[in-house]
């Protein structure tokens, strides 16, 4: 059955380039994650486990306050607690209390956590190269990174929480 378009400009709304941009972005993200998942799963890591471990590995002193880890991963405080509990049971992370603020605690990457990352990273980096970054020239990559950072600043301003902390200076200790 054929339906008449009640609006003369209805198709113009559907063809809006903003919808195309967000649709392509969502498709690419979903496609990349589905291609990365087998490598992560083979190492016993979920996507959120990997995200948590790699953020710790890339942070000063390989540690983050729980609140900063929640902000960086986009998880709720209870969500990050569940992830850290699970990773702690596997001895991939450990918690450290803050000496000067009993309300705060740190999640620290353990040697076992670093080893798990080091097992998965070579293949993961190769997959990233083959499916994503290798498709872009140097200038395209730089422009793409600048664009992603600009968008991230608006949609997830806390995504780098705790990243500015020097490994020698604990913001929690005087």
TrEMBL record:
The species this protein was found in: Nonomuraea fuscirosea
SMART domains tied to this protein: HTH_MARR
Keyword Transcription annotated: no
Lineage: Bacteria, Bacillati, Actinomycetota, Actinomycetes, Streptosporangiales
Source taxon at top rank: Bacteria
Name listed for the protein in its UniProt record: DNA-binding MarR family transcriptional regulator
GO biological process, one term: response to stress
Record-level Gene Ontology MF annotations: DNA binding; DNA-binding transcription factor activity
Residue stretches making up the HTH marR-type domain: 1-153
Database matches in Pfam families: MarR_2 (PF12802)
SUPFAM superfamilies attached to this UniProt entry: Winged helix' DNA-binding domain
């Amino acid at each position: 059955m054929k339906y008449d378009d009640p609006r003369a400009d209805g198709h113009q709304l559907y063809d809006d380039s903003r919808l195309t941009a967000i649709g392509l972005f969502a498709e690419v993200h979903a496609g990349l994650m589905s291609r990365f998942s087998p490598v992560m799963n083979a190492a016993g890591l979920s996507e959120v486990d990997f995200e948590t471990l790699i953020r710790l590995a890339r942070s000063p002193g390989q540690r983050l306050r729980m609140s900063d880890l929640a902000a960086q991963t986009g998880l709720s405080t209870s969500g990050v607690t569940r992830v850290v509990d699970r990773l702690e049971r596997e001895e991939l992370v450990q918690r450290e209390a803050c000496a000067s603020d009993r309300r705060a605690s740190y999640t620290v990457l353990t040697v076992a956590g670093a080893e798990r990352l080091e097992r998965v990273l070579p293949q993961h980096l190769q997959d990233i190269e083959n499916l994503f970054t290798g498709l872009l020239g140097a200038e395209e990559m730089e422009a793409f990174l600048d664009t992603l950072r600009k968008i991230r600043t608006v949609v997830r301003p806390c995504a780098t929480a705790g990243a500015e902390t020097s490994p020698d200076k604990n913001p929690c200790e005087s």
